[in-house]
Amino acid sequence: MISYFSEIRYKEVIDIHNGLRLGYVYDAEIDEAEGRIISLITPGKSKFFGLFGREDDYILPWKCIVRMGPDIILVETEANQPRRKREKRKFF
What we know:
It is a single chain. The chain is mainly beta. The protein has one helix at 5-8; strands spanning 12-15, 21-24, 27-31, 36-42, 57-61, 65-68, 72-75, 83-84. The longest helix has 4 residues, at 5-8.
């Protein structure tokens, strides 16, 4: 099975422990020296319909991925899953 990153972005990420929907992949960390994906990043939940921003992003190391299907990615997260603040972009 060959997958492109553009195809991975349209797959929904779900935690198998609690069934929590983590969203869709929007970024990845890549090790350029070895040419492999280190982790996938999904956005945090939006606060009050997105008006008050979002929670921190989920960082999902490659070892957490249990199964990748045609439309879903199943992950096994830890209790203290690392999260990262979203970088703010300037308008101008």
